[in-house]
TrEMBL record:
Residues 115-278 form the DUF3152 domain. Keywords: Membrane, Transmembrane, Transmembrane helix. This is DUF3152 domain-containing protein. It comes from the Bacteria. The keyword Transit peptide does not apply.
């Protein structure tokens, strides 16, 4: 008896019967590119760059102006600087007295302009003194000037003339600053050196653009002296300013010049201290 053979296992044909485990490779997305940590910098357009530079320079200039302003008006009186004069050549000395031209000019930073026109301080000041009739005055500052200069000059004039050592100590009159619309006996001017020279010359006085002067109804303070005092004065600028006002107002009140009474003694306020103390000690007051 012949044994029947079992079913034959077919041979594997890779073209007809691929293996069951065969898989196509998975499609994976490409990874994103790494971030650019240093992107290209777009250069600022030239007009914008110039505008930015101009604004920077303007900011520095404003800062410098603010520092200069604070240095001028907010320093204490004790720290006022007296500018050391330097001798300069003058075009002509024939028209001025020898005593005036002998005094050297000073290099100072002016507080007022040179326009020849004046701005008058508004408002009323306090009545200064306790007895006698009121003698009224105006205060004017040459244009253009810094914002606080007129008010500051008027305040120094009020404080000086209202001091118990000033002219009101005689108790013969009182003083008061009044606005330009009110009648006044005289005006206290703060004028540039050249304008003060011209104003004084019109009244017959030669100052060589160095000293202050007084004409009828006009007390003219030279701004160079107001800002810089004089060489060898030996006292703070605040003392010289009080002297300048008291001296020129003293002329308006009828007082003449006086001389140094002796070496080491106090100079009379009506002595021409701007031209030298002649051995005396600086003094700003008629009744010290």
């Amino acid at each position: 008896m012949t044994q029947q053979a079992g079913p034959r296992t077919p041979l594997w044909d890779p073209t007809r019967n691929p293996p069951a485990m065969s898989r196509a490779p998975l499609a994976r997305p490409a990874p994103p590119p790494p971030p650019d940590l240093f992107p290209d910098f777009d250069e600022e357009p030239p007009p914008a760059r110039r505008r930015r530079r101009a604004l920077t320079v303007l900011a520095y200039l404003l800062l410098a102006a603010a520092v200069a302003f604070l240095g001028r008006y907010l320093r204490p009186d004790g720290a006022d600087r007296i500018v050391i004069p330097v001798i300069v050549a003058r075009p002509s000395a024939s028209a001025a007295p020898a005593s005036a031209t002998a005094a050297p000019a000073t290099t100072v930073r002016p507080a007022v302009g040179t326009s020849g026109a004046f701005a008058y301080v508004t408002g009323y000041g306090q009545v200064l003194g306790t007895a006698g009739p009121i003698r009224r005055f105006h205060v004017a500052v040459e244009k253009p000037s810094a914002f606080l200069v007129p008010a500051s000059f008027a305040a120094v004039a009020d404080r000086t003339l209202g001091d118990r050592r000033s002219w009101i100590a005689a108790r013969r009159f009182r003083l008061q600053r009044v606005p330009p619309g009110a009648r006044a006996e005289f005006t206290i001017y703060l004028a540039s050196a050249r304008t003060s020279e011209r104003m004084c010359r019109e009244g017959g006085l030669e100052t060589a653009a160095y000293t202050s002067c007084r004409l009828p109804g006009k007390v003219i303070i030279n701004d160079d002296r107001w800002e810089g005092s004089v060489r060898g004065y030996g006292a703070p600028l605040s003392t010289y300013r009080a002297y300048a006002i008291n001296h020129e107002v003293g002329h308006q009140l009828g007082h003449g010049h006086e001389r140094c009474p002796g070496k080491g003694r106090r100079a009379p306020v009506m002595m021409q201290q701007t031209l030298g103390l002649k051995g005396c000690i600086a003094n700003a007051w008629p009744y010290p």
